Structure of SAV-6107-like HEPN domain-containing protein:
Amino acid sequence: MTSSRDLSIPRPRHAADEPGTSPPPEAPAGAFSALLDARSRWHAAESAADPRARFVDAHAAALRAATALVVARAECLERPRPAGVWALLAEAAPELADWAEFLAGHSNRRALAESGVPVVTGPQADRLLVQSREFLDIVGRRLLGVAG
C-alpha cells in the first residue's frame, strides 16, 4: 500500500506578479468542496485494510474529483439530457477524456465490490489507489489553473 503524502490543494506554479501571467480563474466554492471530499475519500481508501473497501473508496475519490472539475467548468456543458459524471467530464475537460474512460470502466467493478462481491484483489485496489491519487492531483492543478 502507498504511504500517506500531503494531499493539500497544490499552489499554482507561477507567481501572479510575473510579467505576462494572470491569476487563474476563480473556481466555484462547490468545486473545491468536492475536491476536499475527494481527498477525504482517498485517505479512507489508503487506510482501508479490505481490498474491496480500498477499491470502492479510491474510485469514489476519483468520482468526487471529476465532479469538482465538472462543477468548475459547468458553463462548457451543453447537455440536452442527464448524463453521468464521466461523460460530463469528457465534455467539460476533453484533455481528461482518457481518464474519464478509464475510470468509467471501473464503475461496474466498484458497484459489485460495494455490494460485497469479491471482484477485487489487493494489487488491483492498490493500483486504483495510486491512479486515483494521480487523477486527484491533476484535477487540483486544473482547478487552480495550473497546466500539467
About this structure: The radius of gyration is 16 Å. The chain has six helices and no strands. Confidence is low (pLDDT under 50) at residues 9-24.
